[in-house]
């Protein structure tokens, strides 16, 4: 094996590595994976599968390989069934990640020298982010639980160390300060490792993204010009997650943490300070002072009884517009400054710093409140990294507010601790504002009473109470106060919000739902950005995409529901960036196309890339077609059935061949992906396919999988529980890695790559290889006759059954189940037959069938071993990869049942024989009797008909 077990076990691994080298050379020499469309008019079944092109800022790891294995197994199976099978693979370089890494390395080498001498203090590992529960304050906002098995690297990890841990020589690391070096280094390593895994990729069609490749650059420019012509790209000011350090929006691929996080919209209620005393007296004469309270429920402001602040919290007084001063937390002030709500963008002007204790007792005028004057009171559960740190209190409909207010009313010592006067608290009672049929017009009071909540410290019960009150309040609540009395809450909520904003009583504000860190290392904000947007979510486009989804095979309900959920919330998407790598927008070249927007229909580019690039992934080769000749008219002709460009210098035969490749291969039959891409890339891809192609070219299926654990733990470079694909192949061999991948899991839950399973794979594969070689070497001594005995018929039937079940599971992309049938069950059937045959031995003809069957149906999973068996043991021509699925009769269920029955009664027979041959027990005081005679025969009674 690969570790722990001595020279013999390493020898087994080394044997598989040697078979791997021979098989891969054979496939490359024979160009087994290079496949073209048949000539026009000639039909042949096809299978086109693809995998998201990996990002080229590091080496491929086992997480990549796990998803990749799903495509590899599927395409290998369909190739074996006789289909023309296309598996291309490109590499993604667009966006900020490479630039951020290069810039980070440059800063490190500038600050700490080359080689760098870093400070000695060690950064604590950053814990993996927990899945956030749904926010009960806004029942319209879904918060999905997302498991991310691969922990992100902590903030203390240096870029220099990351590159060093990747095996890059230290003298070469300084070269990575140049972004172009990344584009030259990692794609070649990724190609190397995918080849080592034995994947059946047609490398003629490979490419990298960005304008470094002029052909792909042309493709993306055409794509966006078409989107603009269709009115699907517009320029506007919208809210977007934004990196202040990068100075541009930060999409999912640009983030080190916070993938999938969206802007959360709040209403900031402007609560005017009526008196400026104590420390706030410094603000006298400098402007009108407001405390800004963030709320998701502006319709409840009629029930305000007080305002909350965190006594030990740190707040600032910041300059706003129109001579206004806003008191809020620093983090929210920074967000606000990027939303056109402060005098200078991105630079909040802090006039002074105060604590929450300084705010206690400040009298306020609150919009829509019944009371003319309310006061700031202490709330100890406020989070300063959520909202503004200022919270308005509506105890009628907020269990938190109700219990906190009751604590202050009922506990004089609590009031005394924070210097709270009775007149700030005692006169203020719960104000009914919303009637909920199930809870009445003071829902929080009712639910807290029912759940027997006595204190604001009963967090578990309060969480339950909030879930009940907020959901019912939104869906069933009816206003009982104000100008909208008698109307349903879900109807008037947006109306009341708009009224407050237009009256100058509130501001519209957004911040990230959760913390988002850019790959450049700064915490992101939400900014109101003026840029280009794709109109995802627009009515007609969304309707077409929903139709596409209805025809898509998602294999798992979780995958389908993920798409449906994403279609439900996905809105306009910022598709342009100011910095990074990529393609320039043709009509506005100051902007680049961002990384999730140049990767939506590139699967179509695979179909023609080999005509353009002459096998060079950078498009720098001397191909038959010049990049400048690939015009929009050419793309329209090839991909959209447009007119033949009459003045194109590209030969007509070449254009016709390109079009034939596209029309033959498209649509794709399978796309595999990690499930985390449903919320962005995969849904974007469906949208764009409906925009560009007719229905018959829409994708056929998407199969998503969970993330990959390594030995039951999250993969993390920090903890050392991490393995690159290259390391794994050399530790175990490609077939053993594939063996473990097939066993790791089939569904959308997180799967597990186990060291012990990979090692067991080495042993299992080499043992079976040895048995087959030995059996065929001595086949002349085997029994050679028609397989008519029951044992022979049972074995033959079991082989047919294994082949049939494996076929069904391969076809359904259930590879663990397929491998169970093709490998484990088939070997078990052989072992049962071998045992049952006894001294006379197995049937030679059945052994030959067994080896042929084993070799063919296991080729998708362990192809290198099977190639050796095919060529060197069975002495067959060609490659096992294209040998065809074995033709076997359908299994006979009656033979299977009889075989199972006999297999089950054999242990019972043995027990009966053992009991009959057991010597009698000696009676007390007497010698034991003679042993009974050996059993030499038995009579078995079989019913001639079933009686039941």
From TrEMBL:
GO terms for molecular function: aminoacyl-tRNA deacylase activity; ATP binding; leucine-tRNA ligase activity. Residues 122-160, 917-936 are annotated as: Disordered. It holds the Pfam family Anticodon_1. Residues 671-757 form the Methionyl/Leucyl tRNA synthetase domain. Residues 792-923 form the Methionyl/Valyl/Leucyl/Isoleucyl-tRNA synthetase anticodon-binding domain. Keywords: Aminoacyl-tRNA synthetase, ATP-binding, Ligase, Nucleotide-binding, Protein biosynthesis. Belongs to the class-I aminoacyl-tRNA synthetase family. This is leucine--tRNA ligase.
């Amino acid at each position: 094996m690969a570790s722990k077990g001595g020279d013999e076990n390493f020898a087994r691994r080394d044997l598989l590595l040697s078979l791997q080298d021979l098989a891969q050379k054979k496939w490359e020499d024979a160009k087994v994976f290079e496949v073209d469309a048949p000539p026009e008019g000639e039909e042949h079944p096809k299978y086109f599968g693809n995998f998201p092109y990996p990002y080229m800022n590091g080496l491929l790891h086992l997480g990549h390989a796990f998803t990749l294995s799903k495509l590899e197994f599927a395409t290998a199976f369909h190739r074996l069934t006789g289909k023309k099978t296309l598996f291309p693979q490109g590499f993604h370089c667009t966006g900020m990640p490479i630039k951020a890494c290069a810039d980070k390395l440059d800063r490190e080498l500038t600050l700490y020298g080359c080689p760098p001498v870093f400070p000695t203090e060690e950064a604590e590992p950053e814990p993996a982010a927990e899945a956030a529960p749904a926010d009960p304050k806004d029942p319209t906002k879904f918060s999905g639980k997302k498991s991310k098995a691969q922990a992100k690297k902590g903030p203390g990890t240096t870029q220099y160390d990351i590159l060093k841990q990747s095996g890059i020589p230290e003298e070469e690391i300084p070269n990575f300060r140049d972004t172009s070096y990344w584009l030259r280094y990692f794609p070649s390593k990724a190609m190397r490792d995918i080849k080592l895994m034995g994947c059946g990729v047609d490398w003629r069609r490979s490419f990298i993204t960005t304008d470094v490749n002029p052909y792909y650059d042309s493709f993306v420019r055409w794509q966006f010009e078409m989107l603009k012509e269709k009115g699907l790209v517009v320029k506007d000011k919208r809210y977007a997650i934004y990196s202040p350090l990068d100075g541009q929006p930060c999409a999912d691929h640009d983030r080190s943490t916070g993938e999938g996080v969206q802007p959360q919209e709040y209403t900031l209620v402007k609560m005017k300070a009526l008196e400026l005393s104590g420390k706030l007296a410094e603000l006298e004469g400098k402007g009108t002072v407001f405390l800004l309270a963030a709320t998701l429920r502006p319709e409840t402001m009629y029930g305000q009884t007080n305002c909350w602040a965190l006594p030990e919290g740190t707040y600032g007084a910041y300059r706003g517009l129109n001579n206004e001063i806003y008191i809020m937390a620093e983090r929210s002030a920074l967000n606000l400054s990027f939303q056109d709500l402060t005098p200078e963008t991105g630079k909040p002007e802090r006039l002074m710093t105060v604590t929450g204790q300084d705010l206690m007792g400040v009298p306020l005028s609150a919009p829509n409140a019944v009371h003319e004057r309310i006061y700031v009171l202490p709330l100890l559960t406020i989070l300063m990294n959520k909202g503004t740190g200022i919270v308005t209190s509506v105890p009628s409909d907020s269990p938190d507010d109700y219990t906190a207010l009751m604590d202050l009313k009922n506990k004089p010592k609590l009031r005394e601790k924070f210097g709270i006067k009775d007149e700030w608290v005692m006169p203020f009672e719960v104000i009914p504002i919303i009637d909920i049929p199930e809870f009445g017009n003071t829902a929080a009071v009712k639910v807290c009473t029912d759940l027997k909540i006595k204190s604001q410290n009963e967090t578990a019960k309060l969480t339950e109470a909030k879930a009940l009150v907020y959901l019912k309040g939104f869906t069933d609540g009816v206003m009982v106060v104000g100008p909208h009395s008698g109307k349903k809450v879900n109807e008037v909520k947006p109306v009341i919000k708009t009224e407050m904003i237009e009256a100058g009583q509130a501001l519209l504000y957004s911040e990230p739902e959760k913390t988002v860190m850019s790959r450049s290392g700064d915490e992101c904000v939400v900014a109101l950005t003026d840029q280009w947007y794709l109109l995802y979510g627009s009515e007609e486009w969304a309707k077409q995409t929903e139709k596409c989804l209805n025809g898509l095979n998602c294999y798992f309900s979780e995958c389908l529901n993920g798409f449906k959920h994403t279609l439900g919330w996905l809105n306009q998407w910022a598709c342009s960036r100011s910095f990074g790598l990529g393609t320039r927008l043709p009509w506005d070249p100051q902007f680049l196309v961002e990384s999730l927007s140049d990767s939506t229909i590139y699967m179509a580019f695979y179909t023609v890339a080999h005509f353009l690039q002459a096998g060079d992934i950078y498009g720098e080769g001397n191909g038959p077609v010049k990049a400048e000749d690939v015009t929009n008219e050419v793309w329209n002709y090839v991909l959209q059935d447009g007119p033949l460009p009459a003045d194109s210098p590209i030969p007509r035969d070449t254009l016709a061949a390109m079009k034939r490749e596209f029309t033959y291969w498209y649509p794709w039959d399978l796309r595999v992906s990690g499930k985390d891409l449903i919320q962005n890339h995969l849904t974007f891809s469906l949208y764009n396919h409906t925009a560009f192609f007719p229905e018959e070219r829409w994708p056929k299926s998407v199969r998503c999988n969970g993330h990959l654990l390594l030995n039951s733990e999250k993969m993390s470079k920090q903890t050392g529980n991490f393995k690159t694909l290259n390391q794994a192949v050399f530790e175990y061999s490609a077939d053993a890695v594939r063996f473990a991948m097939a066993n790791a899991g089939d569904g959308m839950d997180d799967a597990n790559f186990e060291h012990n399973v990979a090692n067991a794979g080495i042993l299992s594969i080499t043992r079976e290889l040895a048995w087959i070689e030995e059996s065929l070497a001595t086949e002349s001594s085997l029994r050679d006759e028609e397989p008519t005995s029951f044992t022979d018929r049972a074995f033959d039937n079991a082989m047919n059954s294994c082949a049939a079940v494996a076929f069904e599971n391969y076809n359904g992309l259930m590879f663990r189940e397929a491998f169970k049938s093709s490998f484990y069950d088939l070997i078990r059937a052989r072992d049962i037959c071998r045992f049952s045959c006894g001294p006379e031995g197995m049937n030679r003809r059945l052994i030959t069938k067994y080896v042929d069957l084993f070799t063919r149906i296991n080729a998708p999973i362990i192809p290198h071993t099977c190639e050796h068996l095919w060529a060197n043991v069975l002495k067959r021509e060609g490659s096992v990869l294209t040998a065809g699925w074995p033709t076997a009769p359908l299994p006979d269920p009656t033979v299977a049942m009889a075989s199972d029955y006999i297999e089950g009664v054999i242990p019972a027979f043995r027990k009966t024989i053992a009991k009959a041959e057991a010597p009698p027990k000696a009676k007390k005081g007497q010698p034991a009797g003679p042993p009974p005679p050996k059993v030499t025969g038995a009579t078995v009674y079989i019913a001639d008909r079933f009686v039941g």
